[in-house]
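re: the backbone from monday

yeah here it is again, tokenized this time
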């Protein structure tokens, strides 16, 4: 006997409804096309042909949920080689999609294309993407926002609104020419002409007022600000006039909430903060300017601003009425390291975390600058660093050199000799008073393409030790393919006897970039559970150019789930 038609209809409806509910909780795949192209962009009264993604500056914001997959087809219509890096994405087993040129892929040549495919696993918060080739990331960057899985919520009350503020640097020149000039002369590159929020310098710069970024808020609201330091070469302070900020996340990991009136972000770092509309309805400046820890080094001393605008604030500049200027915040002095230290010491994971305690690889890396003596066949115009030298930089006295005809990952995977050697030193080849008065004979590192080999699953500790060679400086050290725990930071030379006692093995913050204190050190730990070739470098781009980098070569484990995937068929070749 046939069932009445209404019963069929009901069954079909139930099926549909459950399918809809299922698909809600299901990870999604997001497809995007990134066209790399020259685009006229006018800033500081002048137009430059900037390299952009899809004609947008900054580039498109990607918004996904934890667990989703991104497929981004990058088409290079610019005249430069390009690659895109997904800063902070773990790229579990998908190292071919990481992006640093000559590390995990050959560059996408003009006219070429490459499709990056990867799945985000267990990361929530704010990351970003940027070009990882030459200095293209000056204009080729954007936000990558990872929301909790569908049905999951933030570990804090749902914000009324969210806004992303990408801090950047603008040159009133072609950034590639700025780099070329520095490479030719051996001197430090010209500093940028403006800092920016979402590509806009803001009210305090010429020809910039009408495009100043407005961030809306209303009385009684609590909003989420996602702050990213996408600047090329400058650590930045960030603050909002009259408002306290509650830090709830950094580098796409949640933190134990704490309040502060100022943030400091090294390039590469992100910080998520809550801000409450609890002040007199008005307009308040959001401002950022340099934290400059290096001595006697030129830097841009200007301030970028956006405006926090209460919806109920009296209208600003009506024709004929006097303009009410937004309220300007107090910013720390350029060299205010005490504020930076107080801020970075507040970071904790929200709860106890599984920090590795039995360490297989106990590493000690110096990070710092150097000077190369002028090579014999060079003209004086090519040696315009201090006292007729050329600037360089190194880790453990090795100044990192990228290969030029194959990627390190390909060479490592395919056992191609002569590209990368696995003899990167576990310790400084010469021990010296790293933060003291260093002998001039230790200023010149050795160039090389050296990796440090790690067994799958090994537990790693790295002490990152700043040196005072040329000048001490706060170096934002970024590791690809991993998040790490920052278990301690301090000043002077790391001393295992007394500093081991300071390790936080309970609830240290999990990050992908650590701002190593100027004239000090930081200790990080991670488990090498992601096979591939992973660059660790200073995120001040000028320092990568000079060689402040190394690579970890992480072996496959057992079986395909512990091995890197096969390279995609469209992986660019050199
Ligand atoms: Cu955001 Cu290798 O960097």
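seq for it, each position gets an aa:
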């Amino acid at each position: 006997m046939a069932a009445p038609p209404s019963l069929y209809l009901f069954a079909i409806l139930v099926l549909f409804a459950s399918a809809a509910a299922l698909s809600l909780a299901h990870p999604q795949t997001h497809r995007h096309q990134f066209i790399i192209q020259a685009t006229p962009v006018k800033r500081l009264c002048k137009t430059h042909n900037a390299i952009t993604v899809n004609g947008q500056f900054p580039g498109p914001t990607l918004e996904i949920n934890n667990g989703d997959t991104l497929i981004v087809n990058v088409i290079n219509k610019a005249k430069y080689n390009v690659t895109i890096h997904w800063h902070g994405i773990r790229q579990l087993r998908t190292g071919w999609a990481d992006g640093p040129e000559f590390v995990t892929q050959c560059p996408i040549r003009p006219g070429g294309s490459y499709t990056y495919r990867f799945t985000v696993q267990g990361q929530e918060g704010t990351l970003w993407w940027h070009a990882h080739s030459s200095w293209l990331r000056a204009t080729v960057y954007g936000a990558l926002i990872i929301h909790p899985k569908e049905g999951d919520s933030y570990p804090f009350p749902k914000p009324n609104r969210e806004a992303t503020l990408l801090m950047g640097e603008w040159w009133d020149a072609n950034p590639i020419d700025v780099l070329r000039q520095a490479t030719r002369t051996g001197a430090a590159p010209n500093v940028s002409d403006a800092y920016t929020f979402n590509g806009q310098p803001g009210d305090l710069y010429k020809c910039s007022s009408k495009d100043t970024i407005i961030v809306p808020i209303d009385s009684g609201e609590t909003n989420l600000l996602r702050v990213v330091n996408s600047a090329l070469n400058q650590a930045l302070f960030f603050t909002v006039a009259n408002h306290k900020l509650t830090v709830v996340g950094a580098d796409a990991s949640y933190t134990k909430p704490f309040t502060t009136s100022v943030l400091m972000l090294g390039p590469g770092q992100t910080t998520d903060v809550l801000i409450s509309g609890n002040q007199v309805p008005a307009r308040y400046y959001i401002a950022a300017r340099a934290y400059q820890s290096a001595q006697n080094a030129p830097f841009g001393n200007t301030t970028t601003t956006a405006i926090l605008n209460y919806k109920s604030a009296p209208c600003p500049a009506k024709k004929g009425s006097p303009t009410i200027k937004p309220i300007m915040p107090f910013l720390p002095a350029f060299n205010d390291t005490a504020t930076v230290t107080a801020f970075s010491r507040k970071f904790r994971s929200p709860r106890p975390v599984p920090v590795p305690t039995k360490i297989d690889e106990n590493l000690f890396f110096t990070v710092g600058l150097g000077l190369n003596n002028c090579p014999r066949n060079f003209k004086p115009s090519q040696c315009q660093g201090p006292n007729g030298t050329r600037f360089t930089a190194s880790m453990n006295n090795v100044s990192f050199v990228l290969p030029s005809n194959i990627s390190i990952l390909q060479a490592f995977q395919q056992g191609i000799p002569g590209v990368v050697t696995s003899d990167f030193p576990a310790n400084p080849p010469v021990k010296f008073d790293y933060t003291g008065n260093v002998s001039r004979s230790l200023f010149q590192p050795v160039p090389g393409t050296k990796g440090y080999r790690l067994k799958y699953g090994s537990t790693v500790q790295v002490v990152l030790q700043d040196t005072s060679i040329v000048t001490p400086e706060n170096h934002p050290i970024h590791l690809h393919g991993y998040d790490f725990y920052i278990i301690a930071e301090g000043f002077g030379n790391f001393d295992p006897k007394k500093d081991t006692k300071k390790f936080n093995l309970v609830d240290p913050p999990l990050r992908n970039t650590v701002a190593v204190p100027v004239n000090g050190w930081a200790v990080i730990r991670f488990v090498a559970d992601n096979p591939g070739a992973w660059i660790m470098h200073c995120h001040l781009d000028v320092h990568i150019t000079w060689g402040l980098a190394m690579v970890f070569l992480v072996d496959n484990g057992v079986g395909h789930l512990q091995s890197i995937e096969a390279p995609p068929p469209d992986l660019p070749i050199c």
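Residues 1-5, 9-23 have pLDDT under 50 and may be disordered. The chain is about 10% helix and 35% strand.
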